[in-house]
Design goal:
heterodimer, A: mainly beta, four-stranded antiparallel sheet, globular, B: mainly beta, seven-stranded mixed sheet, 11 strands, 0% helix
């Protein structure tokens, strides 16, 4: 079974600085998808960024980028120029290639942004 | 607007009183799923459905039922709720194709069972 590990329960960053959130996963599949979701106080699950395992290029979405290391099974999220609105819980998630594959989530990390 | 809706958003109930949380999506997605979120545990899948009349258990199905009679709806049924089912529940949907894999989440339902 696939597992997703987020070992840091909390992190803090100064506004305008850069922070990296760590995530590792375990799988025997070669083709899969990885995601970072943001959950602000409203509780809505918001997709931040996605990565297809078959793509070597790291995904980027504006201030958000990932460092995808397939051999190491690592998928970290970098937030540049942190803003107060980035404060939220962030979940790393894995989805296998099969049509019935579920999303497997890590336990999440709470990010606070200091003004 | 493409969306997943859930109702109710908040519910307080008593042990043993049957309840249903509705989920509806307007994106013609084949795949729908229910998750529960608990502190320190992340989100865990309860049940999922690949299409109409096709449902299967996720990681934590005990105490829950689902049905998929229409493509757009996927209600979650708690026939005899217990306090350990107090949680935040999310419905999600996506296309079944493995290349159109993004899951869209509903706004969540906060359930308290006393």
């Amino acid at each position: 079974a696939q597992t997703v590990t987020q070992s840091q329960p909390e992190m803090s960053v100064q506004e305008a600085e850069t922070v990296t959130l760590s995530c590792t996963y375990d799988t025997s599949e070669s083709d899969y998808y990885l995601f970072w979701y943001k959950q602000p106080p409203s509780r809505q699950m918001i997709l931040v960024i996605r990565q297809e395992a078959y793509k070597q290029q790291n995904a980027t979405e504006n201030r958000f980028s990932v460092n995808f290391q397939k051999a190491a099974k690592s998928f970290s999220l970098k937030i540049s120029d942190s803003q107060l609105g980035d404060a939220a819980m962030y979940f790393c998630a894995y989805r296998g290639h099969g049509a019935n594959s579920k999303l497997t989530f890590g336990k999440g990390i709470t990010l606070s942004v200091r003004p | 607007e493409a969306q997943v809706t859930q109702n109710p958003r908040y519910l307080i109930t008593v042990t043993g009183k049957k309840l249903t949380v509705t989920c509806s999506q307007n994106m013609n997605h084949e795949y729908m799923s229910w998750y529960r979120q608990d502190p320190g545990l992340g989100l865990r899948q309860i049940y999922y459905s690949m299409n109409v009349e096709v449902t299967d258990k996720g990681d934590v199905p005990e105490g829950y039922k689902v049905s998929r009679k229409e493509k757009r709806n996927f209600p979650l049924i708690l026939e005899s709720p217990s306090p350990n089912q107090t949680s935040l529940y999310f419905c999600a949907s996506s296309f079944r194709s493995t290349r159109r894999y993004e899951q869209y989440f509903g706004p969540g339902t906060r359930l308290t069972v006393t």
